[in-house]
Give the backbone structure.
Amino acid sequence: MSLDPVPALLSRATELLATHFASLPAYDSPVDTAAIEQVLEATAGRLGDNYPYFHPLYAGQMLKAPHPVARAAYALAMTVNPNNHARDGGRASSEMEIEAVRAIAAMFGWTKFLGHLTSSGTIANLEALWVADQCAPGRRIVGSRQAHYTHQRISGVLKIDYTGVVADNHGRMSMEALEAELRKGNVGTVVVTLGTTALAAVDPLDEVLALQRKYNFRVHVDAAYGGYFRLIPEALDEPARRAYAVIDRADSIVVDPHKHGLQPYGCGCVLFRDPAVGRFYKHDSPYTYFTSTRLHLGEISLECSRAGAAAVALWATQRLLPLTQGGEFARGLMSGRRAALELDRRLRQDDHVQALTAGAPDLDIVVWKQRAETPERASQLAQDVFDACATRDLHLALVQLPSSWFGPSGDVKNRAKTGMVTCLRSVLMKPEHEAWLDRIWERLTASW
């Protein structure tokens, strides 16, 4: 690990924070430092049994180290441990959350909206689908089969009928399949994913919105992974660019700052274009909302207790790295995007593998299939390469995809019956991945 700047950064800020409470009478809080040191050493020993998620040679799952300012601000906030359910428990951090969420909404082109942070993207999507059902009770939810599996699970929790429709060989929701469901009727909301988990595929939001005018349904955009790519439209291919250009017309949006937003887990965000949906959250609490007549975040959230430290960390990060096109934060996204395109280019020139026939990745996730005579053999080779890369400190991921997405191939028998095949997957979401791509490629090709 590289030298950690957080302790030094945090020390002075902690001293400054303490001055705000210096007028309080002193009190004793005995701490057994020797025992704590012993436990922390044991903790470090346990945490060593992990993949190096922070390092550029980790290119597997959607894991990205928090920015040092986010880690420091989170730890600083834990000195007071605010709770952003009510201003009674999180006065400063509630204001910081409102400001941070306003900046995220502005990134999507919204100045008038209702939104807040959540403890995860799953909870953010749950709130969005709950509001969708309040707006259109008894009507179905429809999403791509490549949408995150939690949409179907959430719908089950909420007792809403959910229908999954097929995706094309780029992982994008099929508009023909969607319209076939819309013709059946009783669809209240369509979930559009901008950045699917398997491929970071971008559903054609512009085409979905065209269907909305005809069939009258709500549009929820799950941009948990891909939301921040709104900042770099010039780096995207035309289909994805068209989708991001109209994201402001969605009824609700979810984005996860704990993915590309450089935040610790868990930090999700849900936004609604119509602030009037706040009426669905209205409730009375005889013991909570007393210290302020201003809106308490618990009055527009399904969750109660939420870590104010998450809001503080996000606010500090966006203060350092504003969400602006052309800024340092956007340039980091550009680096990952370029790394993905270059890896995809190299894979397409290598005879050991097959890339998706549909073309280059939409965002910064690359998948490929090992070339073999059968899907079973290709799947085994993928596992072998995965294991061999790990011995070289390169960590990838595995994903199962339809064999047909890799197109007709003379070396695959019984193509009509191929079904699913295990593939390799690389998430190049760290800005450092671009500079490390040659070293990643060297370790990868040595594992064929």
Q: What stands out?
A: The chain is about 40% helix and 15% strand.
